[in-house]
């Protein structure tokens, strides 16, 4: 029945339980039922479950990459701490979506935001990771305040349209560079900066490429959970090859695994230490970038998923979007406290909506399933880096389609968008890409006399970023690069 109160087998008590879900989430109002909502939730979870493996792998610091490191704990143990923090953060955000917004969308720390955290903030800029967590916390509070006050339209108007449309593609290229590097498909080269690795003779690169194309084939076939399945198969082959003696230990599989680590006390609350000795200009840029990437990621994902479920009004807007955005805001604030990266709505939510998910019941199922993955946290450190990072390349390819939204025939749009897209991967910084686009936009509009297309906020942002780049590259801020 459409109201979700179909009789349960063998028990009137079970029927009452079903009616509780139906009444609370409004199955009849949304034209859905319990079975559909549960199936949609399971589908959404499976398609985005790779997050539990990939986010910790992105954020953990090792001798070869920037990120979060904890004295006295090996990277594998820290990776498990990050997995626990990621799971709890995602679950809380999803439950806010389920019980407050009553929408079928799922949240979690975003790939682009985690990449910005580790490679730009901690790596390129050189900010200590507790300070990066402090920035995540402040961004979350800012997100909540602006959501409560309904100031979303003000934020939308500040960021130039071509820059908004270019952010996703720029992040996609950034993710691709990181993923292909960890897969050893591209390698540093003194003559050309980067070059193609020795794929045919490098077991890591060879298996990574095979795993990548397997995952892409599964994805285009519409296989549910294609990304996590591709990661598992690729990593499994690496372990099998090591066990059979095809490759030495430590090449395709770690030589040893750390014991299970569920204690996140070394991460919990460290954001408070991050407020000490903070450079205000740098900290403001980090908060600004976290906020804008998070805000537009969340808005775009929610709108896209809602479109898949025919939830938009006649003007193409999503009703009560502020309630849905609150889930991302609360999740991001908690992320800073627990020790992981900013939260966004996952595009994979659209797959669950396409399966018929229409209410918070779908989201609730996703949240419960994420909590159940706590039993498998040790696996987060067992997945080889090359296997987990193939997910970045898959997602990056999907993000390139955002360029279709850019008006390339209008040079005042094409140039700011192009700067945004190019500068991100070339400088290893999402922030610098956004800043370059913001600076270019009013200048290009001024060149053709289209002053009405520029608002005061855009001029102020452009001027602020010019000052920032001067300070950053002029040596005014020492020792932070």
UniProtKB/TrEMBL annotation:
Subcellular localization, as worded in the UniProt entry: Endomembrane system
Domain of life: Archaea
Membrane topology: Multi-pass membrane protein
UniProt-recorded Gene Ontology molecular function terms: purine nucleobase transmembrane transporter activity
Keyword S-adenosyl-L-methionine listed: no
Annotated TM spans: 38-61, 81-101, 108-127, 133-155, 167-187, 199-220, 227-247, 259-276, 283-305, 325-347, 359-377, 383-400, 421-444, 456-477
Annotated GO CC locations: endomembrane system; plasma membrane
Classification via InterPro entries: Azg-like (IPR045018), NCS2 (IPR006043)
Keywords: Membrane, Transmembrane, Transmembrane helix, Transport
A Pfam family the protein falls into: Xan_ur_permease
Similarity comment text for this entry: Belongs to the nucleobase:cation symporter-2 (NCS2) (TC 2.A.40) family. Azg-like subfamily.
Protein's UniProt name: Xanthine/uracil/vitamin C permease
Lineage of source species: Archaea, Methanobacteriati, Methanobacteriota, Stenosarchaea group, Halobacteria
């Amino acid at each position: 029945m459409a109201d979700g109160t179909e009789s349960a087998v063998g028990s009137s008590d079970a029927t009452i339980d079903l009616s509780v879900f139906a009444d609370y989430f409004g199955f009849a109002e949304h034209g859905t039922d319990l079975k559909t909502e549960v199936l949609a939730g399971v589908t959404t979870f499976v398609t985005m479950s790779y997050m539990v493996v990939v986010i910790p792998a992105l954020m953990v610091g090792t001798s070869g990459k920037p990120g979060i490191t904890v004295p006295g704990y090996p990277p594998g143990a820290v990776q498990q701490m990050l997995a626990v923090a990621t799971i709890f953060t995602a679950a809380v955000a999803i439950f806010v979506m389920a019980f407050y917004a009553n929408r079928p969308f799922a949240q979690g720390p975003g790939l682009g935001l985690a990449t910005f955290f580790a490679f730009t903030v901690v790596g390129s800029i050189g900010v200590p990771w507790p300070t990066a967590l402090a920035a995540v916390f402040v961004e979350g509070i800012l997100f909540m305040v602006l959501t409560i006050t309904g100031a979303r339209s003000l934020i939308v108007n500040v960021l130039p349209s071509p820059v908004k449309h270019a952010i996703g593609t720029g992040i996609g290229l950034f993710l691709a560079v990181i993923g292909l590097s960890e897969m050893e498909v591209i390698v540093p080269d003194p003559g050309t900066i980067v070059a193609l690795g020795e794929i045919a003779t490098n077991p890591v690169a060879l298996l990574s490429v095979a795993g990548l194309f397997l995952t892409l084939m599964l994805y285009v076939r519409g296989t549910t959970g294609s990304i996590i399945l591709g990661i598992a198969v690729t990593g499994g082959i690496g372990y099998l090859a090591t066990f059979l003696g095809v490759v030495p230990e430590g090449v395709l599989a770690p030589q040893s695994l750390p014991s299970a680590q569920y204690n996140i006390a070394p991460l919990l609350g460290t954001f408070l230490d991050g407020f000490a000795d903070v450079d205000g200009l740098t900290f403001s840029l980090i908060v600004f970038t976290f906020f804008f990437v998070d805000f537009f990621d969340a808005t775009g994902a929610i709108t896209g998923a809602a479109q898949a479920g025919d939830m938009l009004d006649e003007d193409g807007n999503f009703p009560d979007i502020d309630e849905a955005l609150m889930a991302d805001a609360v999740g991001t604030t908690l992320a800073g406290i627990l020790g992981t990266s900013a939260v966004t709505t996952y595009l994979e939510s659209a797959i669950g909506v396409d399966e018929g998910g229409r209410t918070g019941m779908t989201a609730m199922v996703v949240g419960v399933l994420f909590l159940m993955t706590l039993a498998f946290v040790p696996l987060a450190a067992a997945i080889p880096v090359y296997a987990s990072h193939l997910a970045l390349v898959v997602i990056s390819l999907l993000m390139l389609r955002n360029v279709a939204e850019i008006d390339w025939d209008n040079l005042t749009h094409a140039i700011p968008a192009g700067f945004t897209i190019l500068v991100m991967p070339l400088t290893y910084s999402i922030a610098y890409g956004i800043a370059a686009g913001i600076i270019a936009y009013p200048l290009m509009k001024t060149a053709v006399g289209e002053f009405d297309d520029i608002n005061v906020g855009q001029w102020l942002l452009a001027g602020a970023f010019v000052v920032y780049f001067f300070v950053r590259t002029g040596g005014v801020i020492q020792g932070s690069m």
